[in-house]
Write a structure and sequence with these properties.
Blueprint lengths: L3 E5 L3 E5 L4 E5 L6 E6 L6 E6 L1 H9 L4 E3 L7 H13 L4 H5 L1
Parallel strand pairs: 3-6
Antiparallel strand pairs: 1-2, 3-4, 4-5
Length: 96
């Protein structure tokens, strides 16, 4: 089984499996952060992941998600839906 060596801020060097780690990629997918819970002290940890670390984590099968900064809010969706209902020409909303 593949093991990933990293460091816990409290316990020092530890070994994890790909299932113990999750990867959050920035848009573009080259860098991000990886998260894990230390198997010794159980403290949650977050570490930056440069392009090399991202490549290694992906190659070992670590699950990932792309984090989109400033996503559309529920309020913005509701305002857009209301505008669609009241606008006689909804395509005009897209032109602006």
């Amino acid at each position: 089984m593949t093991t990933i060596k990293t460091t816990c801020a409290r316990c020092g060097d530890i070994h994890l499996t790909p299932d113990d780690v999750s990867l959050e990629l920035h848009p573009g997918g080259r860098e991000g952060d990886y998260r894990f819970r230390c198997p010794r002290c159980t403290e949650p940890q977050r570490r930056p992941a440069n392009a090399r670390v991202v490549s290694v984590l992906l190659a070992t099968g670590v699950p990932f998600e792309v984090i989109i900064p400033n996503p559309i809010t529920d309020r913005e969706i509701e305002a857009f839906a209301a505008a669609l209902e009241s606008e006689p020409d909804p395509l005009r909303l897209l032109a602006g």
